[in-house]
Amino acid sequence: MANRSPAVFAVGAHPDDIEFNMAGTLTLLARAGFEPHMMNVARSNLDSNELPEEDITGIRRREAERAASVIQAVYHPPIVDDLMIFYEDRLLRQMTAIIRDIRPTIVLLPSLTDYMEDHTNTARLVITACFSRAMRHYRTDPPRAPTDQDVYLYHAQPHLNRDGMRTLVVPDLFVDISDVMDVKLNMLGCHESQRQWLDETQGLDDYLESMRQASAEVARLSPAPAGAYAEGFRQHSHVGFSARDANPLAQTLGDRVQRR
Ligand SMILES: [Zn+2]
Q: What would the mean pLDDT of 86-92 be, rounded to a whole number?
């Protein structure tokens, strides 16, 4: 264990949440030597009105695995059905087991304000799973020994950079992802079934284009002119997560990161 690479864990509620708001930064951290891990918490069983649930669940899982393989990320399978991500005992014990397995140094997680409850509930579950990683009396499902590494949490932008009340969310950290935008587009493009589904249900007429525009908007919000595309993050308090206040994401990615 002692000599393994530090791990970065990107977690979203649904397949493609990571690809929208975190995949560029995850790619850069992987290139900087972090072992990348990816997980979507929900199975996507509601992502089709035509296919049987087991069919759409299989399709979405294969798409997510393919996206993870683009950057050789370790893929962690979902644990619950869509619209059943609640902040509750069973999921918290399962999520904490995953955190103890991965032992991440950096966690990329959803915004605490977003348009969809699955996203915000995922963020809450992951926060407490990280918080309880070292508590000896907290029993995980399946059982895992506690871990004591420092962990730093970074909340990604909400979908299309706005919360549920349409308010623009301005991040604290801006990561220039311009030169890995092709990788990010490639990863999002793995989610072929979603393009059609979002066209039908939400009028997102161009799936890839909406991600590109959201990344360009974050770049425009950054304090100093930089690249054309950026991802934004807000760092969680270090209290309960690390011995000292530090910012390994900014330290690792150096000049690519601007702070507000
Ligand atoms: Zn989502």
A: 98
